[in-house]
Design brief:
The chain is of the alpha/beta class and about 500 residues long. It has three domains: about 5-105; about 125-205 and about 290-470, P-loop containing nucleotide triphosphate hydrolases (Rossmann fold); about 205-280, no CATH class. It is built from 16 helices and 17 strands. The protein is elongated. It starts with a strand and ends with a helix. The structure holds adenosine-5'-triphosphate and magnesium ion. Magnesium ion binds near residues 159, 160 and 463.
Length: about 500
């Protein structure tokens, strides 16, 4: 049953009404109102308490004491503002404002389950309402993948846990995820019931575009002669490989092509190619084949970037995003079964490093491209960051859905708010006080912005907090035991 907590009074608009309370609710609590022939969902946006007799024009404390004795708090009232979210079925805002006298009732779990719970096959549960632990909150996966997602919060607030929950459930649905694992957190997990496909971050230079190669070799567009020489050598190398030369000899052939002639610029380019080989030796290896060929459908494909530095990670992430977008375009535009067969959710951890505000990285270009074009080709983007203000606005503003856990710094909050019109001041003010795993969830993937306690991922994950003290104790105990044994041996 929905309990009456107040009545609408005074003037109201279709989206906002003031009520006088008989049983004060909490801020953020959901309520229902019945008018215009429907049941309408609302949220408590503000609460004000006051007293008729103890009004602000009293300036004598003794008068206050006398009134207090007489009234014993009986004339204290609580007023509130309720924001109209829409009718319970379709969440459409009625044209008429709530009329005065309408009952404001507490929304019961049954009603809330109709709003936040499962709706069809594209629903995916992420947690429960913070205010009602018996009301599951589901997101629409179609809208999440096609309109992208950002998971933002201070360190340790629960971003990786959220990624694990979402990835696990998508894989169990039969979906495909591609996860750039910057700290080797997921690669040894049991996400998706063990459907993890570790992908070694090694690229075949044959699959790099000439533009990518020139960037890595450090041949800038303004070095016209170097560019011309390099392009020609690259073309000849690829021709030779097409005619049957071993792709594993790509770099040797390229260097042979470059040294033909021996002009001054060729020597400079050769030096650069050698520098490139040395710098990227961890992630570039001729003959390994196309990295996209190593991804599996229906799996969480984890590219383990834990062992490579930021520059190499940038190369790998940008290349994979570019190739994936190309392969999905091929599948959709050319048809005939060519290209990558599944829509994919790509997850980029440490997004502020790969797509920073301050500089143009290779990845920031491809992250923005996927953010803009991914919707048409079924490539979703999930950006994860603990420093939102360092994350490129260009990328962030293309992201429609957000899961924002605890976020303390006002500059981070402002940056996020600038990128998302759905983040109201009221929701923003909740962010600093959220506990671990609690989040504001907004965007097209949810029917209304909501405060959610994200489920805890129950499986194995590496990045969880380390129990520091018990590890120290364990080592101390081992040390003590060793000493005891030594003493015993000495005595013997
Ligand atoms: N929804 C949740 N319920 C319960 N515990 C949680 C939840 N989310 C996170 N935790 C716990 O909080 C700790 C930190 O979580 P997590 O690793 O997801 O944070 P993070 O935001 O990814 O941190 P970092 O910025 O360091 O990557 C973990 O030990 C995890 O078990
Ligand atoms: Mg994390």
């Amino acid at each position: 049953m929905n309990r009456v907590i107040g009545y609408i009074i005074g003037e109201a608009t279709p989206t906002k009404g003031v009520f006088i309370s008989v049983d004060p609710p909490r801020l953020g609590e959901y309520v229902v109102l019945e008018y215009d022939g429907r049941t309408v969902l609302g949220m408590i946006q503000a609460l004000i308490s006051g007293s008729v007799s103890l009004s602000e024009d009293i300036h004598d404390p003794q008068v206050v004491e006398r009134i207090r004795r007489l009234e014993r708090g009986r004339d204290v009232y609580v007023k509130g503002v309720v924001e109209v979210l829409g009718d319970v079925e379709e969440l459409r805002i009625p044209r008429a404002p709530p009329p005065p006298g309408v009952e404001v009732k507490k929304a019961d779990s049954e009603t809330l389950r109709r709003v936040f719970g499962e709706r069809g096959e594209s629903s995916l549960r992420i947690g429960t309402l913070m205010s009602h632990d018996d009301v599951p909150v589901c997101i629409d996966v179609n809208r999440m993948v096609s309109r992208h997602l950002a998971i933002l919060a201070v360190t340790g607030a629960g971003k990786s846990n959220t990624v694990a929950v979402i990835t696990d459930r998508i894989v169990r649905m039969g979906g495909t995820v591609m996860l750039f694992d910057m700290h080797s957190e997921y690669v040894n997990s049991d996400i998706g019931g063990g459907k993890i496909n570790p992908v070694t971050p090694i690229l075949d230079p044959c699959t790099l575009s000439v533009g990518e190669l020139m960037h890595l070799v450090n041949i800038r567009p303004e070095y016209h002669i170097q560019e011309k020489v390099f392009r020609e050598a690259y073309r000849n190398t690829m021709d030779k490989i097409k005619r049957g030369e071993d792709p594993a000899r790509f770099l040797e052939i390229l260097k042979e092509e470059l040294s033909n002639g021996g002009k001054k610029d060729r020597v400079a380019i050769l030096n650069k190619v050698e520098g490139f080989e040395e710098k990227y030796s961890r992630v570039i290896k001729p003959g390994v084949g196309d990295i996209i060929g190593k991804f599996k459908l229906g799996y969480a494909n984890v590219v383990d970037l834990g062992q490579v530095d930021e520059e190499c990670a940038d190369v790998v992430v940008s290349h994979v995003l570019r190739r994936l977008l190309e392969e999905r375009k091929k599948f959709i535009v050319e048809g005939g079964g060519r290209g990558f067969r599944h829509p994919v959710l790509t997850v980029v951890e440490e997004a502020h490093i790969l797509a920073p505000t301050s500089e143009d990285t290779l990845s920031s270009y491809w992250i923005s491209r996927v953010a803009r074009e991914g919707r048409k080709f079924g490539v979703g983007l999930c950006l994860v960051s603990q420093r939102p203000k360092a994350l490129s606005v260009n990328a962030l503003s293309q992201v429609n859905n957000m899961i924002i856990l605890k976020l303390v710094e006002p500059s981070d909050q402002r940056h996020v708010q600038a990128a998302s019109e759905a983040l109201s001041d009221e929701l923003l003010s909740q962010l600093p006080s959220l506990n671990t795993g609690e989040a504001v969830v907004l965007g097209m993937m949810v029917r209304v912005p909501s405060l959610v306690k994200i489920d805890r991922y129950r499986g194995k994950l590496v990045g969880s907090d380390i129990d520091v003290v018990s590890e120290w104790r364990r080592d101390k105990k081992i040390e003590e035991e060793r000493k005891e044994i030594e003493e015993l041996l000495d005595m013997g």
